[in-house]
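Reply to dn_fold:

You asked what the input looked like. This is it:
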Amino acid sequence: MNGQLEKLLEDIGFMSPSLLEIVQGVRQTVNATADASSLDITETVKYGGILFSAKSAFGGVFAYKQHVSLEFSLGANFSDPHKVLEGSGKFRRHIKLTSMDEIAAKHVAEYITQALYQADK
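and this is what came back:
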């Protein structure tokens, strides 16, 4: 883990230990999903959050005051069977998370799988 990433995680933890737990849970889910797909991903600190990339950037995780947002670069192209994607822009969609339980309840791994598939094209 690089210094910028360590500092960002430290800052999030100082702001809110519960938000840090969610951010770390999302990172673990991204990494586990990428490992299952045999894809290498990178994490970069940018725009106040952590951006994820495979062959191309596919999303990021950002901590706000009351929630964590998992954002997908091409989320508008996703199927959304669980109706958890928010946003109405031309490309991006996001999932708001307020607890660790929501990572499973909102089927985050399924959406990350879609993002990885698009990023690996």
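Residues 79 and 114 are 8 Å apart (CA to CA).
Hope that clears it up.
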